[in-house]
Amino acid sequence: MAGAAPPVLDFSPFYGNDKQALAKLVEEVRQCCLHNGFFQIVGHRVPAELQQAVFTQVKKFFDLPLESKEKISRETNSWYRGYERVGSQIFEDGTAPDLKEGLYLGEDIPKDHPYFIHKKLNSGPNLWPEDLDDVEAFKSISMQYYWTVLELARDVLSVIAQTLGLDASFFNEFTKDAVATVRCLHYPPQPKDSDETISRGIGAHTDFGAITLLMQGDVDGLQVYDKTTNEWFDVEPVKGAYVVNLGNMFMRWSNDTYVSNLHRVINKSGKERYSVPFFLSGNPDYVIECLPNCRKESEDPKYPPITVQEAVGGNYNKTYGAADEFYRKNGMIKQAPVSTAQEITVE
Ligand SMILES: O=C(O)CCC(=O)C(=O)O
Ligand SMILES: [Fe+2]
């Protein structure tokens, strides 16, 4: 499998009665998890109309004037909901701030919910863009999407459990009352001649949670690193497909047998790029420890047990801190305008 973009797998055997077809799917997923933790799926149950409706809403949101988007700034709360401007994050050391704007959404958790009261991971009310013409449509479509993709994430984990010789329901406890994040992203086009060494839509990183289900629009830009050939491979958008990748939790669970792989976005298409990743973090109190079958009895686990809350919390902070530090060092006001961000030189 070396030296190739993540393969497109048909997920429909998960919902059928053909045991052989399911076994084939499980084996294909296993190979991908061992190789670089990336694959794409079609034949899932997220309706194409819902996917389309999400993109329509996402574009409407990003088309709002900056002042409207800023009314729901992420900086107004501590539970990772709301809008952030272009240039708010740096994922990759030595690069300029990421050329993307984003909106964090999640389960709409009220302030009297135990998760909010006890400051559980990314848990609190959503911030809704009231300046949209039809904010109710935005709310209902995005929340329907959240719950639908959460179901798909459970199904994908069930297949991954089987790749490890575990019961198909192994991750049920982990996904009970799970925390997850829908992140709407907009990458303005980068100039074709922008400096490849510092200019990023999103810098090279691995994801922090358990799995990510990414819905790409129709504009390319996502690349996955292949450590066997030392190359970046383009993940060309496949209509309706999800790009699935394992997050860092799987390195812990599998004692590094499974890979949480580097990926990045550089939008040189000349077009606006939209994407909507769904990050499954899991139940904040669940303890992640080396899975059965992932180490020999004589071997120690490489990672100590840790809760989901501990494993994921704090990671995002670092990326915002890195951007703040970049602006400070370069004597700039915090938010770089889109048009100049790629001209910044890094010492
Ligand atoms: O926008 C994309 O295609 C990828 C986004 C991503 O990797 C992330 O948000 O973690
Ligand atoms: Fe990512």
From TrEMBL:
<dbReference type="InterPro" id="IPR005123">
    <property type="entry name" value="Oxoglu/Fe-dep_dioxygenase_dom"/>
</dbReference>
<dbReference type="InterPro" id="IPR050231">
    <property type="entry name" value="Iron_ascorbate_oxido_reductase"/>
</dbReference>
<feature type="domain" description="Fe2OG dioxygenase">
    <location>
        <begin position="178"/>
        <end position="282"/>
    </location>
</feature>
<dbReference type="Pfam" id="PF03171">
    <property type="entry name" value="2OG-FeII_Oxy"/>
</dbReference>
<dbReference type="InterPro" id="IPR044861">
    <property type="entry name" value="IPNS-like_FE2OG_OXY"/>
</dbReference>
<dbReference type="GO" id="GO:0046872">
    <property type="term" value="F:metal ion binding"/>
</dbReference>
<dbReference type="GO" id="GO:0044283">
    <property type="term" value="P:small molecule biosynthetic process"/>
</dbReference>
<keyword id="KW-0223">Dioxygenase</keyword>
<protein>
    <recommendedName>
        <fullName>Fe2OG dioxygenase domain-containing protein</fullName>
    </recommendedName>
</protein>
<keyword id="KW-0479">Metal-binding</keyword>
<dbReference type="InterPro" id="IPR026992">
    <property type="entry name" value="DIOX_N"/>
</dbReference>
<keyword id="KW-0560">Oxidoreductase</keyword>
<dbReference type="Pfam" id="PF14226">
    <property type="entry name" value="DIOX_N"/>
</dbReference>
<comment type="similarity">
    <text>Belongs to the iron/ascorbate-dependent oxidoreductase family.</text>
</comment>
<dbReference type="GO" id="GO:0051213">
    <property type="term" value="F:dioxygenase activity"/>
</dbReference>
<keyword id="KW-0408">Iron</keyword>
<dbReference type="InterPro" id="IPR027443">
    <property type="entry name" value="IPNS-like_sf"/>
</dbReference>
